[in-house]
Write a structure and sequence with these properties.
- By secondary structure, this protein is mainly alpha-helical.
- Helix 4 crosses helix 5.
- The chain has a domain of about 80 residues.
Length: about 120
Amino acid sequence: MSAVCAALAADPVLASHYADFSAKAEGALDPALVALVRAAVAAVHGMGAAPNESGLDAGTRTCLAYARRMPFEHTAITDAEAAAVVAHLGEPGFVAFSVVTALADAECRAELVGLPELAGA
């Protein structure tokens, strides 16, 4: 259970909505990409090793480069970088990818500050 889900445990309706939203975003992408994105974001936060990119296609490597920038460099991401991810995933895939990446970032931050404990979960 993620730190965000644990913190929401006191509100089962909200926890259910969060889990459903997260699952729908993840379900729109290849599960391998979701795992790679989660690992890349966690590595940015110092919470694990960066994923091994050997053997990955150029599009997936482009997605991971973008995902690594989202936590601390999101305002510096260019239109060209975003367009490269859209070219690889399509517009709906880009939206799902953005949600998955943002939630991975939020979940890492929640874990780092002990959000479940702070929320009294």
